[in-house]
């Protein structure tokens, strides 16, 4: 029995280790919800790091009815550390504006995947004199 113990320990470590490494991988594909209730779905990331999806925002500055909007993006594909950087553009279906997001996918201390992003929204304005108020 004493000789079997090291073998069982090695076997259990081999079986558990893939679970630990898998939790450290952050995968963009799937459904994401932010703190405000907006949600997006990202499809499969192809070999070039490109992806498409959709975004349904919970907040808007327009009085138009919110609609599901398409997104296109790119993930940094040479990142072997499992927490990739990425960027994507949302072309809002219900307004004359576009938002670009850039960020990184992280795995927190509880093994939960989290996207941290910053964004810029550009709205259409009637003339160049209003350019100053077109980007948030």
TrEMBL record:
Signal sequence extent: 1-22
Disulfide bond positions: 26-105
InterPro entries cross-referenced by the UniProt entry: Avidin (IPR005469), Avidin-like_sf (IPR036896), Avidin/str (IPR005468), Avidin/Streptavidin-rel (IPR051764)
GO molecular function: biotin binding
Principal cellular location given in the protein's record: secreted
Superkingdom field: Eukaryota
Keyword entries, A-Z: Biotin, Disulfide bond, Glycoprotein, Secreted, Signal
Compartments reported by the entry: Secreted
Keyword Coiled coil belongs to the record: no
Family: Belongs to the avidin/streptavidin family.
Protein name: Avidin
Organism annotation: Phaetusa simplex
